[in-house]
Amino acid sequence: MLFGKLLTAFATTLLATVSAVPVEVETSQIGKRDFGPVTIFTPPSTYVNERTLYARSLLLKDGSILTTWENYDWSGMPWFPIFKSTDHGFTWTNFSQAHDTQNGWGLRYQPFLHLLENDIGGFKAGTILLAGNSIPADLSKTQLELYASTDNGASWGFVSHIANGGKAVPNNGETPVWEPFLLEYKGQVICYYSDQRDPAHGQKLVYQSTSDLKNWGKVVDVEANAVYSARPGMPIISKMSNNQYFLTYENGGAAEVDFAVYYKIVSNPLSFGKIQGQALRTVDGHVPYGSPYNIWTPVGPLQQGTVVVNANSDSDCFINHNYGTGNWTRLTTQAYADYSRSLAVGLNPKDIVIVSGGALGMGPTNHVYMAARDVNGCSTC
Ligand SMILES: *[C@@H]1O[C@H](CO)[C@@H](O)[C@H](O)[C@H]1NC(C)=O
Ligand SMILES: *[C@@H]1O[C@H](CO)[C@@H](O)[C@H](O)[C@H]1NC(C)=O
């Protein structure tokens, strides 16, 4: 309802002026926002299984937003679609595709986008990195790959193989690798991922790092539970302005609730493995669970910004104003509770960009959409 009003108001200005004078329309579009879901892509009925899932977004320096997702056109080799919005998420176009050029398997699962902040290994700051899982049609292997775009997402090229594992089946005893997440730290890019190859752990979280984007270092534990059947998964990390790093993961087998959202806070993102995680529990006693995501934005009432977390269990986000310690409270959204719904900080850092590909087991209704939320909440926008 409210969104309809906003959209109508902006649509005329936008369509006429957005490419010519983006700065002029910015302020009104990214002030207090609470809207959604805006459809980014509706898959045709020929798509299989979940049709779309696991969407990710990336804000570019010019204010445009890219998004990608697991795209279940499995008629040939799957690819990672790249859709683009130049009006802060109100409208989207099919912009480019990243294709597997190495394995003949396709880019099938778990894409992640990262904008390089520093020059590294011959790649300039501003290069867009795309990590994801290349998997053949019979799901017999998993291969975490790194691709890159040096033209703002218009085209993509292979960079390196990060890690390889066995069958793409999430059962203990199988040996896949899953869910890459990229972070820059002191001249390195660190890739965090879920790893089922260690016979001592059903699944654990690990990282490997690189200083040239080509050669990846040894596998280091991030979270490995002494209980074999535990399945910590889906690592996401944010850097906060106190120079600490906030990690969330789902903790399969947790005492609070299965796949409870757990977090760890460290000063050195190479040393998450040295501390225990703890469950995220809100002041109203709720422990969210399943496929968490987190961001940190500098906007917050205590000059310490806001940590924002979401999970599969809830439409709401969960926010914290003390660098992840102390109280967690709810922030409602107009997005659905979904599988691995992603968050990003918008061009106005108050703006939470929520992008999702839908829920598990909901194939025919899944589609890719965006919702936006003001991190301060808003009752009148
Ligand atoms: C986007 O456009 C490309 C090229 O025309 C097409 O192959 C693809 O099916 C479209 N949709 C998606 C989701 O990538
Ligand atoms: C935390 O929440 C409790 C209960 O709502 C409240 O009494 C307390 O003031 C809060 N503490 C901080 C630091 O916000």
TrEMBL record:
The keyword Signal applies. The keyword Signal applies. Residues 1-20 form the signal peptide. Keywords: Signal. PANTHER family: BNR/ASP-BOX REPEAT DOMAIN PROTEIN (AFU_ORTHOLOGUE AFUA_7G06430)-RELATED, BNR_ASP-BOX REPEAT DOMAIN PROTEIN (AFU_ORTHOLOGUE AFUA_7G06430)-RELATED. This is Sialidase domain-containing protein.
